[in-house]
Write a structure and sequence with these properties.
The chain has 193 residues and is an alpha/beta fold. The protein contains eight helices and eight strands. Strands 5-4-6-7-8 form a five-stranded parallel sheet, with helices on both faces. A three-stranded antiparallel sheet has the order 1-3-2. The radius of gyration is 20 Å and the shape is elongated. The chain starts with a helix and ends in a 6-residue tail after the last strand. About 8% of the residues have low confidence.
Length: 193
């Protein structure tokens, strides 16, 4: 157990990992005396938080690089460490078909690679993406209704980024922004508005 003074000196790194590798990663990282404490991020499987002393950051990143073979020597710079210590969270709501499910997975993966953490709570997100489908009229109505609800989150947090993607975005385009001016970006299947 770390002392309160020691706890204040710890930095936090958030990572998305294969949940099947959690126990292995925990065993390896916590095997280094005083290196770090690993725990899961509440509400989302596959995300972990690593608490570590700042002075051991380089050692931790090198060890992670050895484990994953994906973290290079240049990624252990202080700017890379700081980028990972202040992650943005995102929430993706998918409407419609299996293709949209796959597109949402790809968006989540790309955001995760940039250091963003997926959250299961829409109210906790820094970025909200609604991936839409226009096959059924009800899905389109649900999107517009949810955009109305999200308006209050945007009012509380003007830095919140709201994205509408998918088929409805392609069909409605700029009309979405006219109807819902709190939407920041509309990404259709073939165009960005």
């Amino acid at each position: 157990m770390t002392s309160p003074a020691r706890e204040k000196q710890l930095q936090t790194l958030y990572l998305r990992i294969n949940s099947k590798r959690y126990h292995y990663l925990k065993f390896v990282l916590e095997g280094y005396d005083g290196l770090c404490v690993l725990s899961t991020v509440p509400g989302k499987h596959g995300c972990v938080s690593i608490r570590f002393p700042r002075e051991l950051a380089r050692k931790l990143f090198l060890l992670l690089g050895d484990i994953s073979h994906q973290v290079s020597e240049k990624e252990t710079s202080s700017s890379a460490i700081v980028k990972h210590m202040n992650p943005k969270s995102f929430f993706i709501k998918t409407f419609g078909c299996q293709m949209n499910d796959r597109d949402s997975e790809i968006m989540a993966q790309l955001l995760g690679e940039k250091g963003h953490i997926e959250t299961g709570e829409i109210s906790q997100a820094d970025v909200i993406i609604l991936n839409t489908c226009s096959i059924r009229a009800k899905a389109e109505q649900k999107v517009m209704s949810l955009l109305g609800v999200i308006r209050k989150y945007k009012a509380k947090n003007p830095d919140l980024v709201l994205v509408v993607a998918g088929c409805v975005a392609q069909q409605e385009g700029r009309q979405i922004i006219k109807r819902m001016p709190h939407v920041d970006l509309v990404i259709g299947t073939q165009s960005i508005y």
